[in-house]
TrEMBL record:
This is FtsX-like permease family protein. Keywords: Cell membrane, Membrane, Transmembrane, Transmembrane helix. The chain crosses the membrane at residues 277-301, 329-355, 367-393, 424-443, 449-470, 508-528, 733-757, 780-802, 822-842. Belongs to the ABC-4 integral membrane protein family. The keyword Transcription does not apply. Residues 22-239, 504-702 form the MacB-like periplasmic core domain. It comes from Gordonia caeni.
């Protein structure tokens, strides 16, 4: 009977205080919406990719690819063997893959940007000969019949401003072939192509020449004759390409043999792995929002309980038990959580739609939003659980209200008195956290990151416990400074801000947690940019850097083109080779052209910086970790399985620009025999004495114009290119953290609005004795500003306390510059004052509208 009565009381209480209900629900909505958005968005992208991959390798019964992705490919001789045995094996059609990365010029001569989608060159296969029936159709023009003719997918042609008959240029992403002059002779309709996908198809003989060394291909596709299943053909082909060695029956297979269905499922799994990582990142930021929201919900229910002291005490006086009272508060929390979760789901759908619209332009496929059971359950479950946990302590506090409180005329929040125990707990936890931070400074490697991570958790917990005691002196000091121009109004605002330290600290902490993360990320970003600037200034002696767009590899022909520039004194191209060192895949670089020391600072510890044809220079880190010294002979294994011995002739100080090892040209050629696979990462250029930078730049840009992706940068531009990447990453992180800051701002609004309701009589009395509406609004503005600045100061101090040791711990990975983002910090403190005023606008207006006589009467 009592439970039924308390349920009615809870429901009527919610209905009677609609504004309070809306504010509480809103704090839940913000926390749950981003969880729902993360699940919906990643499910939508995964579904779109699955729809695309369902059309991949259609008609392919069996596909053969190298087991090692860094291998040279599948031998053409193996394709010939399978073709000769096709009748015995049950092969109908057999198709080899000649393909590679390319960039095609647009109508205005610039490289066509794909937004991250693949840009592939391949051989044109007539539909009647094609194994893969994924569904492209020649819709205009004719097939390429001679070298220099290409067909292009129509979406790429439209974006590039090309049509049948257009003459353009195709630059290769690997090999030593110069850019090709081509004519578009046909357009393809590719239903499965994503937004930015580019496919340039060449006449077969030309594709074979530019995408193969004549010995290897990327893959072999086969269809089966009627009566032979895909799995039967796969097993038969596997027995041919991976014969069992009687001397080593457990040897790893050299080639991977899969059915078309397995190819599709593997591609789906690869995308699912990426999307799961992306989902975890989004959920991590959603968790931050929920942590912030938890404090706001806790603060809200604490205030609600304080405002209902007399009501709850009266219920106790007329027979309600402690359990009845606590359950009534938790019932309200359950209803709020359910409503907030449902509305959060709807808002999450909207956020996911916006994210999909923003990402579809960058090449990601788009489709209908996938609002599945997982998204629905995550939003509602998280909303309910977070709200119930946040309301549990206030519910316990409500159950302890003695009936005698019903006789009093006070609505003071229970438990707002002594802070001794929680402050002592905060001091102890904080000291442990500081000790771990200091330990992290003197430890290197992963151990330092672990110590600093644990320290960060403990310090944030210490702030949670100690902030109420800290808020009184700090907010009081802030108020004393800022109250001066406002006189009595400023003093009253300061008194309001410090009289309930628990509430002030909980309100400020929502802002603190967001700014801690902003300052840590800002410190990391500033330090990374500082390290790059210092490294480039110290190590780069070249006047210009030639690199691929987005720092992607370029064709090895780029270096040769730069060497033809008349006013370039020294040109050094750094080519990339892939090899094995034991069981480990490694990438090596070789300098092609002049001496390295002309274009890069190289500090030798032992030996000479001159690189012999069959020698190698190694970094200090490699020397120590592998126990190598000058004079040692090291054997690398090429992608074709040939051993290539080299001798260590020098050890240099760790240098990010040089990497871990630099190998001689002859050894490099032995490791990378295929011209089609050779790639250049960067070309460094030093001008002839007396030649102006502008003159050399003009010559370089003219020589490299046909290469489309090659960009010419001076030192400052080169530094800026890295800084812009860091800035973009930070902007993305800040945008995600913006959710936490938005919740914090709304939390301040929520707290102030409820505070206005709680202090209605007090506000009425102030108005009755002569305070004007403008003065009352100003009081609320200042109170909010004091609390917001306190939260910002706390966030900045804690963020720097964690961020600076974190940067120091990363010195093991080459981050040897510690930079404090002062503009960000100053902007944060100024912005917090603005946040305080903005957050107080609505509560202040609401307070100013209070009618004095009605408030006093209540």
């Amino acid at each position: 009977m009592a439970s039924s009565v308390m349920r009615k009381v809870s429901l009527r209480s919610l209905a009677a205080h609609k504004l309070r209900l809306i504010l509480t629900v809103f704090s839940v909505v913000l926390g749950t919406s981003f969880v729902a958005a993360a699940v919906i968005f990643t499910s939508t992208v995964q579904s779109s990719f699955n729809n695309i991959f369902d059309n991949v390798a259609r008609g392919v019964a069996t596909q053969v690819t190298p087991a090692d992705p860094q291998g040279p490919g599948v031998p053409i001789a193996l394709a010939d063997q399978l073709r000769a045995d096709r009748a015995e094996l049950g092969i109908d059609k057999l198709q080899v893959d000649f393909s590679g990365p390319v960039t095609i010029a647009t109508a205005d001569g610039s490289g066509l940007q794909t937004g991250g989608a693949p840009s592939i060159g391949s051989a044109y296969i007539p539909p009647e000969d094609a194994v893969d029936s994924s569904g492209w159709t020649l819709v205009d023009g004719h097939a390429p019949s001679a070298p220099g003719e290409v067909v292009l997918n129509n979406t790429a042609a439209e974006k590039a401003g090309l049509s049948v008959g257009s003459k353009t240029v195709v630059a290769l992403g690997a090999g030593t072939t110069a850019p090709l002059d081509v004519t578009v002779v046909g357009l393809l309709d590719m239903p499965a192509a994503t937004g930015g996908f580019v496919n340039v198809q060449f006449e077969r003989s030309q594709a074979e020449e530019i995408f193969s060394d004549g010995k290897f291909v990327g893959s072999i596709d086969m269809s089966a004759v009627p009566g032979v299943s895909d799995t039967e053909l796969r097993d038969r082909v596997n027995a041919v390409v991976n014969p069992v060695d009687p001397n080593d029956p457990d040897a790893e297979p050299v080639y991977e043999v899969r059915t078309g269905e397995q190819v599709r499922e593997d591609q789906k799994a690869d995308v699912a792995t990426f999307l799961n990582i992306f989902r975890y990142i989004l959920l991590a930021f959603a968790a931050i929002g929920l942590v912030v929201g938890t404090f706001i919900i806790y603060n809200t229910f604490s205030m609600i309980v304080a405002q209902r002291n007399r009501e709850l005490a009266l219920l106790r006086a007329i027979g309600a038990s402690r359990k009845n009272v606590s359950r009534s508060v938790l019932l309200e929390a359950l209803i709020v959580g359910l409503i907030g979760g449902v509305i959060g789901l709807g808002l999450g759908v909207g956020i996911a739609a916006i994210m999909q619209a923003l990402t579809s332009s960058s090449g990601l496929p788009s489709g209908g939003l996938q609002v599945g059971v997982a998204a629905i359950l995550s939003a509602v479950f998280v909303g309910v659980i977070v709200t119930l946990l946040s309301a549990w302590f206030p519910a316990r506090r409500a159950s302890r209200i003695p009936p005698v409180e019903a006789m009093r005329n006070s609505a003071a929040e229970p438990g707002a008195g002594s802070l001794r125990h929680r402050t002592l707990a905060g001091i102890v936890i904080g000291l442990i956290g500081i000790a771990l931070l200091i330990g992290g400074i003197f430890v290197t490697g992963a151990g330092a990151l672990l110590l600093i991570g644990l320290a960060a958790v403990l310090i944030i917990l210490a702030v949670v416990f100690g902030a109420p005691a800290l808020s009184q002196p700090v907010v009081g000091a802030i108020g004393r400074v800022l109250q001066v121009p406002f006189g009595t109004v400023g003093k009253l605002a300061r008194t309001n801000a410090i009289r309930n330290p628990r509430r002030s600290a909980a309100t400020a902490f929502a802002l603190t947690i967001g700014l801690i993360l902003v300052v840590i990320i800002g410190t990391l970003g500033a330090s990374f940019k500082g390290a790059i600037d210092a490294g480039v200034d110290k190590q780069l002696r070249a006047d210009f850097v030639v690199s691929g767009s987005n720092n992607a590899p370029m064709s090895a022909a780029v270096g040769g083109a730069v060497e033809e520039v008349p006013d370039a004194q020294t040109v050094v191209a750094f080519d990339i080779a892939f090899a094995k060192l034991g069981d480990q895949n490694v990438s090596l670089t070789t300098p092609v052209g002049g001496p390295i020391s002309d274009v890069l600072q190289i500090d030798m510890i032992d030996g000479s910086d001159a690189i012999g044809a069959d020698s190698i220079l190694i970094s200090e880190q490699v020397s120590k970790s592998r126990d190598w010294a000058t004079g040692d002979e090291v054997t690398f294994t090429s992608t074709t399985g040939e051993d290539v011995p080299v001798r260590v002739t020098g050890i240099y100080e760790d240098n990010p620009a040089l990497g871990d090892w630099i190998i001689g040209n002859q050894a490099f050629d032995a490791l990378t025999p295929a011209a089609a696979q050779r790639m250049t990462f960067v070309v460094l250029v030093k001008a002839e004495p007396g030649v102006s930078s502008a003159a050399l730049r003009d010559q370089l840009e003219t020589a490299l114009k046909p290469y489309l992706t090659a960009q010419v940068q001076d030192k400052q531009e080169f530094k800026n290119s890295f800084a812009s990447v860091i800035d973009q990453m930070m902007a993305t992180l800040y945008a995600l953290l913006g959710l936490a800051l938005l919740i914090a701002v709304l939390g301040i609004i929520n707290t102030l609005a409820l505070s206005v309701v709680e202090r209605r009589q007090e506000i009425g009395m102030l108005r009755a004795i002569g305070m004007s509406r403008a003065q009352l609004r100003r009081t609320i503005y200042l109170e909010s500003t004091y609390i917001a600045i306190f939260g910002a100061l706390l966030g900045v101090v804690v963020g720097l306390a964690i961020g600076l040791p974190l940067v120091h711990a990363l010195r093991h990975w080459g981050l040897d510059v510690i930079a404090v983002p002062w503009p960000l910090i100053i902007g944060t403190l100024l912005g917090s004052a603005v946040v305080g005023v903005v957050a107080a606008l609505w509560p202040a207006v609401s307070a100013a509208r209070t009618k004095p006589l009605e408030a006093i009467t209540e």
